[in-house]
C-alpha cells in the first residue's frame, strides 16, 4: 500500500499558512498537541497519545548472561516497531530509513544518556544480569513519532517493576509477586525528546510537527533533554544550515517543554500509583469512554417440548439389545483415564448415516409436513448416538455408577461397535 | 413447523451496488426448490423493519424462508452493507440499518477506506504522467488511470495542462474489483460539467465517507449551517476528500476544522459552534 501523495495545493497552502504563523490545527508555533498518558493493568505498559499520534510501550525483563566486557552491568534493549497499522505507508518486515533513524534516536536518547542504573540490574557478577527490554509500537502515525516514543519509553520504564531475586550459594531464585514485592527500576533522570521542524531554509520554526507539516518541512532538529537541562542527544537532519542562535533558541524552548512533559509524566505515574493502591479501576479498558452498542438480539426461539421424553424413551427402547459382556475400563495409572480407547471412530459413521437420510429426504421429495417430522425424529436418533459416545468417555474416566443405563451400549471392541451401529442403522431404516 | 421461527423471503431480491442497480438472479439450489411449497404467514419486511435505526454488526443474520415471487412489491433491495447468502441476508458492515420506502435497505456505516464504484465523482491527485494516461491516486487500493483525451476539448494536438500533484475532480467509468479503475473528466455529452483540474490554492483534507455522504445529500443541513458563516468554495469527492477555499488562509482553516469536527456532533452542538464562529469572524 503506497502512501497518499501530497498534492501541490496542500503544500502551497501549508507553506503560506506557516508564513502567516498559522497551523492546521489552530496551534501556535511553540505549542504541543494534547499529550495523554494511559497505563495498562500490568506494570511497565503505557500508551501515549500526542494528538492523533499514538504509541504503545511495553517493558519486560529476563535473566541473561552479561556482556563479556561489562560483567557487572545489566542490559537495556530498545526496539521500535512501525507496523502497517500506524500508516499504510509502513511495510512490515522491511527496515525503512525512518525505522532505522527512529530506533537509533531512541537508543541514543535512553541508553547513551545512561538514564537507567544498569549496575543495579546485576544479580551474579559475570553470570546473571537483568535484561530490560523496551518494545515501542507505533499504533497511529500523525507526525512526531519520536517525541511520543521517547515519552512512552521513559514512562514505561518508570512504571515498570521487576521481580525480586534471592541468591543462596549458586542458586538464583526469582520470587513471584505474591512472595516478595516487585522492585522498581532505579532511574537517574528522565530524558524526553523535543522535535523542531524548519521551513523555508530555517526561517520558520515549528514545535511538534504533525504528519503533513513533516512532509513539507526542510529540516528537523531533535533535542533530547532532561529536566535538569542536560542535553542527552541532539540531531539535525534534512541538511539545512542552522545558525548558532537558532540552536540555542531551540535549546531554550526544549528545556521549557521538557519540564512540562516531565511534570505530566510524574503526575500520571502518581495518579496510577494512587489508583492502584486504593484498589480502584485502572488499565486501558477503564480509561476509555464506554459506549453501549446494541447488536441484533435474537428472540427466544419457540421449541416444542411436549412429548420429548416419551419420544426419547421410545428411541432408547428401540435402540437394540444390551450386550452383557461389559469390559472393565482400563486404567493405566492412578488418575489417568483414556478416552475412546479401542473403539472405532463413530463420527465417520454418523456422517454416512446422515447422508443416507438426506438422500431419503430428497427421494421423498415432497415438502409436506410429514417428512419434516420424520427428519426431526431421525435427528433425535443422532443426538442419542452422540450422547452415548460421550457416556462412554465418562465411564472410562470416572468408572462411575450413575451411567449404568448406557453401559449396556458400550461395546467391547471395534467389531462390536461397528456391528452395533449397523444394527442401529437398520432399525432406523425400518422406522422410516 | 414447530422448530423454527418462520419468516417469508422472496427469492428474487434486487441488489444495489451504490449507484448502479444490478440484479442478481436467485440461484436454483435444491434447498430453494423444497422451500418453495411452504406457505408462511409472517412477512419478511417485518424482520427488517424491526431493526431500522438500530446498530448492526458484521455477521448479524436476517433469516427467512423463500416463497415464490408473485408480485413485484415483495422485492427487497439490499444496499451497501447487506449481502445475500442463500435464503438469508448477512450484515457485512457495522453501522445503522436505514430504510427508504418502499423497500430499500442499507447499512449506514462510518468508513474511512474508499472502494471505487462506477459513476461516483471523486477528488484525485495526479501522481504520474506516462504516455497518454495519467495515474491518479483516489485513496482506493489501486491507482486509477485517466486518459488525457478524457478532458473537455482535448485532442491529440491539444493536451490538457496537468502537472504531477494537481487535483482533479473526475468520475469513474470503470470500477471493477479485478481491474484498474478508470476515470474521466467529461460527461456523456463531452462537457466538463464541473469536472477537471482545479485547486490552485485552498486546502485539501480527508473526512470519513459517512460525513461526505451527509455533505452531499440534497438539502444537507451541515452545508446550510456552514453557508451562514462566510463565503467559501468547496469540492466534495465521494472518496472522503474535501477541498475548501475561502478569502483568507485563516478562513479556509476555520472551514476545514469546522467540517472535521462535524464528524461526531449533534445538531444542537454543531449549530451552537457555527453561530459562535460566525459571530467572532464578522
UniProtKB/TrEMBL annotation, chain A:
Keywords: Cytoplasm, Exosome, Nucleus, RNA-binding, rRNA processing. Residues 421-432 have a biased composition (Basic residues). Residues 411-420 have a biased composition (Polar residues). Its main location: cytoplasm. Residues 32-163, 189-255 form the Exoribonuclease phosphorolytic domain. One of its GO terms (biological process) is nuclear mRNA surveillance. Residues 369-382, 401-410 have a biased composition (Basic and acidic residues). Pfam families: RNase_PH, RNase_PH_C. InterPro entries: ExoRNase_PH_dom1, ExoRNase_PH_dom2, ExoRNase_PH_dom2_sf, Exosome_comp_Rrp42_subfam, PNPase/RNase_PH_dom_sf, Ribosomal_Su5_D2-typ_SF, Rrp45. Residues 351-363 have a biased composition (Acidic residues). GO terms for molecular function: mRNA 3'-UTR AU-rich region binding. Residues 351-383, 400-432 are annotated as: Disordered. GO terms for cellular component: cytoplasmic exosome (RNase complex); nuclear exosome (RNase complex); nucleolus. It comes from the Eukaryota. It is found in: Cytoplasm; Nucleus, Nucleolus. Gene3D superfamilies: GHMP Kinase, N-terminal domain (3.30.230.70). Belongs to the RNase PH family. This is Exosome complex component RRP45. The lineage of its organism: Eukaryota, Metazoa, Chordata, Craniata, Vertebrata.
From TrEMBL, chain B:
Keywords: Cytoplasm, Exosome, Nucleus, RNA-binding, rRNA processing. Its main location: cytoplasm. Residues 202-250 form the K Homology domain. One of its GO terms (cellular component) is cytoplasmic exosome (RNase complex). Pfam families: KH_6, RRP40_N_mamm, RRP40_S1. This is Exosome complex component RRP40. Residues 67-103 form the Exosome complex component RRP40 N-terminal domain. One of its GO terms (molecular function) is RNA binding. PANTHER family: EXOSOME COMPLEX COMPONENT RRP40, PNAS-3 RELATED. It comes from the Eukaryota. It is found in: Cytoplasm; Nucleus, Nucleolus. InterPro entries: Exosome_RNA_bind1/RRP40/RRP4, KH_dom_type_1, KH_dom_type_1_sf, NA-bd_OB-fold, RRP40_KH-I, RRP40_N, Rrp40_S1. One of its GO terms (biological process) is regulation of gene expression. Belongs to the RRP40 family.
Amino acid at each position: 500500500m503506497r502512501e497518499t501523495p501530497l498534492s501541490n495545493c496542500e503544500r502551497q497552502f501549508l507553506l503560506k499558512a506557516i508564513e502567516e504563523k498559522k497551523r492546521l490545527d489552530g496551534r501556535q508555533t511553540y505549542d504541543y498537541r494534547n499529550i495523554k498518558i494511559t497505563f495498562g493493568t500490568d506494570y511497565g505498559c503505557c500508551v501515549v497519545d500526542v494528538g492523533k499520534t499514538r504509541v504503545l510501550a511495553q517493558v519486560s525483563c529476563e535473566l541473561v548472561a552479561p556482556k563479556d566486557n561489562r560483567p557487572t552491568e545489566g542490559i537495556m534493549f530498545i526496539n521500535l516497531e512501525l507496523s502497517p497499522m500506524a500508516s499504510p505507508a509502513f511495510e512490515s518486515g522491511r527496515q525503512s530509513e525512518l525505522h532505522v533513524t527512529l530506533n537509533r534516536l531512541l537508543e541514543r536518547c535512553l541508553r547513551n544518556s545512561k538514564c537507567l542504573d544498569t549496575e543495579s540490574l546485576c544479580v551474579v557478577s559475570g553470570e546473571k544480569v537483568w535484561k530490560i527490554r523496551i518494545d515501542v509500537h507505533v499504533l497511529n502515525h500523525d507526525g512526531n513519532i519520536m517525541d511520543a516514543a521517547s515519552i512512552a519509553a521513559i514512562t514505561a520504564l518508570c512504571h515498570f517493576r521487576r521481580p525480586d531475586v534471592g541468591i543462596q550459594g549458586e542458586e538464583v531464585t526469582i520470587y513471584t509477586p505474591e512472595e516478595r514485592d516487585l522492585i522498581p527500576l532505579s532511574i537517574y533522570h528522565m530524558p524526553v525528546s523535543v522535535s523542531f521542524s524548519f521551513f523555508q531554509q530555517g526561517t520558520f520554526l515549528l514545535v511538534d510537527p504533525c504528519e503533513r507539516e513533516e512532509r513539507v518541512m526542510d529540516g528537523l532538529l531533535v533535542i533530547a533533554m532532561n529536566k535538569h537541562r542536560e542535553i542527552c542527544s541532539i540531531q539535525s537532519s534534512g541538511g539545512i544550515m542552522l545558525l548558532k542562535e537558532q540552536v540555542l533558541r531551540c535549546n531554550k524552548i526544549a528545556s521549557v517543554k521538557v519540564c512540562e512533559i516531565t511534570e505530566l509524566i510524574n503526575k500520571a505515574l502518581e495518579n496510577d500509583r494512587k489508583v492502584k493502591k486504593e484498589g480502584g479501576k485502572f488499565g486501558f479498558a477503564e480509561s476509555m469512554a464506554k459506549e453501549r452498542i446494541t447488536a441484533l438480539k435474537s428472540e427466544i426461539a419457540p421449541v416444542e417440548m411436549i412429548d420429548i421424553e416419551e419420544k426419547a424413551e421410545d428411541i432408547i427402547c428401540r435402540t437394540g439389545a444390551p450386550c452383557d459382556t461389559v469390559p472393565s475400563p482400563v486404567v493405566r495409572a492412578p488418575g489417568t483415564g483414556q478416552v475412546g480407547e479401542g473403539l472405532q471412530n463413530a463420527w465417520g459413521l454418523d456422517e454416512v448415516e446422515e447422508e443416507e437420510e438426506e438422500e431419503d429426504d430428497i427421494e421423498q421429495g415432497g415438502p409436506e409436513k410429514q417428512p419434516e417430522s420424520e427428519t426431526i425424529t431421525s435427528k433425535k436418533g443422532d443426538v442419542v448416538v452422540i450422547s452415548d459416545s460421550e457416556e462412554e468417555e465418562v465411564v472410562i474416566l470416572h468408572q462411575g455408577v450413575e451411567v449404568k443405563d448406557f453401559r449396556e451400549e458400550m461395546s467391547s471392541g471395534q467389531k462390536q461397535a461397528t456391528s452395533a451401529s449397523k444394527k442401529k442403522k437398520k432399525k432406523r431404516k425400518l422406522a422410516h | 413447523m414447530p422448530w423454527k421461527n418462520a419468516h417469508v423471503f422472496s427469492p428474487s431480491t434486487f441488489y444495489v451496488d451504490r449507484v448502479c442497480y444490478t440484479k442478481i438472479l436467485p440461484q436454483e439450489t435444491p434447498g430453494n426448490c423444497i422451500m418453495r411449497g411452504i406457505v408462511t404467514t409472517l412477512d419478511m419486511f417485518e424482520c427488517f423493519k424491526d431493526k431500522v435505526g438500530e446498530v448492526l454488526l458484521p455477521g448479524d443474520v436476517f433469516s427467512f424462508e423463500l416463497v415464490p415471487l408473485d408480485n413485484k412489491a415483495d422485492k427487497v433491495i439490499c444496499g451497501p452493507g447487506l449481502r445475500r447468502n442463500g435464503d438469508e441476508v448477512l450484515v457485512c458492515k457495522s453501522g445503522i440499518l436505514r430504510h427508504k420506502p418502499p423497500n430499500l435497505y442499507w447499512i449506514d456505516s462510518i468508513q474511512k477506506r474508499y472502494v471505487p464504484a462506477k459513476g461516483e465523482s471523486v477528488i484525485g491527485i495526479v501522481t504520474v504522467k506516462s504516455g497518454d494516461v495519467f495515474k491518479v491516486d483516489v485513496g482506493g487500493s489501486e491507482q486509477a488511470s485517466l486518459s488525457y483525451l478524457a478532458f473537455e476539448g482535448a485532442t491529440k494536438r491539444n493536451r490538457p495542462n496537468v502537472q504531477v500533484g494537481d487535483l482533479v475532480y473526475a468520475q469513474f467509468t470503470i470500477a471493477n474489483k479485478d481491474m484498474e479503475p478508470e476515470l474521466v473528466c467529461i460527461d456523456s455529452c463531452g462537457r466538463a460539467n464541473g469536472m477537471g483540474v482545479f485547486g490552485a490554492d485552498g486546502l485539501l483534507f480527508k473526512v470519513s465517507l459517512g460525513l461526505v455522504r451527509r455533505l452531499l445529500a440534497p438539502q444537507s443541513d451541515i452545508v446550510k449551517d456552514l453557508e451562514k458563516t462566510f463565503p467559501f468554495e468547496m469540492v466534495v469527492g465521494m472518496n472522503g476528500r474535501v477541498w475548501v477555499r475561502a478569502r483568507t488562509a485563516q478562513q479556509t482553516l476555520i472551514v476545514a476544522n469546522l467540517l472535521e469536527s462535524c464528524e461526531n456532533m449533534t445538531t444542537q452542538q454543531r449549530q451552537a459552534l457555527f453561530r459562535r464562529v460566525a459571530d467572532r469572524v464578522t
